[in-house]
Amino acid sequence: MAMGSGAFTLALALALALDAPLPGWAPEATTLALQCLLSGSWRSDTGCRMVVSFLRKDGSFSGSYLPGPAAGGSEILTSPLEGTQQDAGLVPQPTFSFTVHSETARMTAFLGQCYVGTNGEETLHALWLLREAANSPAEDWKATRIGTSIFTRIK
């Protein structure tokens, strides 16, 4: 038994030194081999829609954002968005950030990461901060909201 654990220890040390998989162990290479790019159309778990129209070589992007029914209001307008993502060539599941500036007195900042599941499906997991203009410092406490959204690609 000691000989078996010694062989495992040696195999583990070699695998770590050579950055190689252990014999008989298959890493989840399929999820890491796929790249996650933000360009295209996305829908959030709250019904918001996002279109990333231009993804530039430097990782910056622009597009449009349409709030979902949860946004309230009688007239819902598409708003421009601007952001950046990590180089997907270096990081297969990159982090990203973008801002949405609506026509009303509000702005939203998103920060998240793009994931590729074992089935090849891309999802964006984001934390957001929505800031509305306050009429006075006394109303400042209610001007910022925080939440999370999960976006899936619209095919």
TrEMBL record:
Homotetramer. GO terms for cellular component: extracellular region. Keywords: Biotin, Disulfide bond, Glycoprotein, Secreted, Signal. Residues 1-17 form the signal peptide. Pfam families: Avidin (PF01382). One of its GO terms (molecular function) is biotin binding. Belongs to the avidin/streptavidin family. The keyword Cell wall biogenesis/degradation does not apply. Forms a strong non-covalent specific complex with biotin. Its main location: secreted. It comes from the Eukaryota. Disulfide bonds join 36-114. InterPro entries: Avidin, Avidin-like_sf, Avidin/str, Avidin/Streptavidin-rel. It is found in: Secreted. The keyword Glycoprotein applies. Coiled coil: none annotated. This is Avidin. PANTHER family: AVID PROTEIN-RELATED, AVIDIN-RELATED.
